[in-house]
Design goal:
Layout: E1 29-36, H1 58-73, E2 75-82, E3 86-93, H2 98-117, E4 130-134, H3 137-153, E5 176-181, E6 197-202, H4 206-212, H5 215-220
Antiparallel strand pairs: 1-3, 1-4, 2-3, 5-6
Length: 221
Amino acid sequence: MLRFAGNSPWHAPWGVAAMSKAKRYLPGTFYEVTRRCVERAHKLTPNHPSNRKHSSSVAQLYQYATARYAERYGIEVIAVCVMSNHIHEVLFDRSGKISQFLQARNKMLADTVKVRYGLPSNVFDKPDGTYNRLEGTTAIAEKIAYAMANPVEAGLVASPEEWPGMISSVEDLFGATTDVARPREYLAQNNKTNAPTVKFRIGAPKEAVELFGSVTEMAMQ
């Protein structure tokens, strides 16, 4: 269920039909975001070989698409795990534009995944996932731990480090930056709109550090 960033849904002013109500997302909000593949199909399998002429990893596709739009929309990635049929993320929305970010990022990610695997149909379910607002250190820490432990909880690996796909670690909370080359899947190589290299950043934003007292305390929790 989509949750509003405030305590109650925004009410349309007089004369505006109820169906035209806009959803408001307040700046400075932590979210847990889940995005599932159509019919829970394994369309994000990390180690499935591509039989196409392009062979970027799913992690590369995720990192490039995320970095491509994160700075534009003021989104910071705190934790992530890309499973074979869904994505778990803990995000910080600095500007109140999480909906715009996810719409643009998910479209690019889906388009590149479709080309990588030669998929004829949609990658993700509609509507656009679930955004759960996280309030307080307990809620934030629990969702970070849930994302990192997801492959273990599913019985796929014995430890998070063994998961071959995109997954963040406790150490990433201290901040990490990765240079990611533009995938050849779907994206035109002579189009200057998408840079040849982007920087994928992950880590605890200063607002989270202030809540927990320190990144070390956050990591311990």
